[in-house]
Write a structure and sequence with these properties.
alpha+beta, 5-stranded mixed sheet, 12 strands, 47% helix, elongated
Length: 396
């Protein structure tokens, strides 16, 4: 150039390309890190079809480390043999059908299936990678064999439990029939001799009164009192046995209305007794009305009985909330009892007062407890001698 040598230098700015290559490497490294560290197994497979477009085999193209851990098949074997039929000769055709459909249609699928030859269960998500021509399918999976075994055990336990429940129900039905037969026998066979004892004793007192001295009359009166007490005891036992039988019919019941009705009956029966009654309005519960009426009747009769010797008797019925639960109560200021013996309170025939102090058969509170138990609830009492008793109960 003008008789002088010149050098032409051509240069391109490749900064952006280098940045792009760096980002690509970083992206690939992140992908590889994720690929190697995830707990789920991953494999990229190529489905092999015959001339009729029927899937007959597949080969592994790529695997992650979790694949080997979850299947027990080494990655080297899976990638080198090029055919799953060579790796697992007994593999079922259903696997080719599933993955072949995904490869042809492009519709992903999520399913649980057992690989019978390995006796393993897998939770699998499969989707096509690329277009139909590639016929490649990505498979992400978890080994759920332990969960399936647990489900099987639960199912077997459930079947066994249902069988035991059925057997137990049959036994209970048989026991109920026996109880009904017993109740019939008690009601008819035992009442007859008691009525005879009471009737003949009354006849002797009325027809032969002039031939009996005071001791004779006293003996007959004691026979009558004993037979009448026995008849009352039979009635109470029958009521107690009925508390464990029969179907419950739950409904919203106004317990205040029942308490008022029961108090009116008590006052009509004993009009000379003065009691200050306090009944909270509109106390309701989702209960069986028949059984709850029986429970309240026993509790209120109890309160009435044990306040009978008080100059200023008080009986209350209401409800309160404890720990977010509705608790009902029947309270009185009557004779009370020593809480040391509270564990005997709800036992049949258990009495904390003698019959000379207060009459009764010792069945009432046992009946109440059975009613509350049948409602899935609890009953307890707080008391102090000569200061009264409060019975608390709640239902499920």
């Amino acid at each position: 150039f003008g008789g002088r040598l010149a050098r032409l230098v051509l240069a391109n700015d490749i900064t952006e390309r280098k940045r792009s290559e760096k980002k690509l490497r970083e992206s690939e490294e992140r992908y590889r890190t994720l690929f190697d560290s995830i707990d789920e197994g991953y494999s990229l497979i190529e489905v092999i079809f015959d001339e009729t477009e029927k899937a007959v085999d597949y080969r592994f193209l790529e695997l992650n480390p979790a694949f080997e851990r979850l299947t027990g098949i080494s990655a080297e074997t899976a990638l080198n043999l090029k055919s799953v039929r060579k790796i697992i000769p007994e593999i079922e055709d259903k696997w080719f059908e599933i993955y072949g459909k995904v490869a042809l249609t492009g519709e992903p699928i999520r399913f649980e299936e057992r690989l019978e030859v390995l006796d393993l269960w897998f939770d699998i998500y499969a989707f096509r990678v690329g277009d139909e021509e590639n016929r490649r399918v990505a498979v992400v999976f978890n080994n759920i064999t332990e969960r399936k075994l647990t489900e099987k055990e639960i199912l077997q336990f459930s079947v066994s439990l249902e069988q035991k429940v059925s057997e137990r129900t049959a036994e209970l039905n048989a026991v109920n029939k026996e109880l009904e037969a017993f109740s019939y026998s008690v009601s008819h066979d035992l009442r007859a001799p008691l009525r005879a004892m009471d009737g003949f004793s009354l006849a002797l007192l009325e027809d032969y009164s002039d031939k009996l001295d005071d001791d004779g009359k006293n003996f007959l009166n004691r026979v009558r009192a004993g037979s009448q007490k026995m008849a009352q005891l039979i009635d109470d036992l029958l009521k107690l046995s009925q508390m464990v039988r029969g179907e419950l019919h739950f409904e919203n019941v106004n317990l205040s209305a029942i308490a008022n009705e029961l108090f009116e009956n008590l006052q009509e029966a004993q009009p000379k007794t003065s009691v200050n009654l306090k009944i909270e309005e509109d106390v309701c519960g989702f209960v069986d009305e028949r059984l709850m009426r029986a429970a309240l009747e026993n509790l209120l009769n109890n309160a009435w009985k044990f306040t009978s010797k008080k100059e200023h008797a008080e009986i209350s019925f209401g409800q309160k909330i404890e720990d977010g639960e509705k608790v009902y109560f029947v309270s009185d200021n009557g004779a009370g009892f020593d809480m040391t013996y509270a564990n005997k309170l709800f036992g049949a025939f258990q009495r904390l007062h003698t019959t000379n102090e207060f009459e009764g058969t010792g069945i009432g509170l046992a009946t109440v407890q059975r009613v509350i138990n049948r409602h899935g609830g609890q009953i307890w009492a707080e008391s102090e001698v000569d200061k009264g008793t409060t019975f608390y109960f709640k239902v499920a």
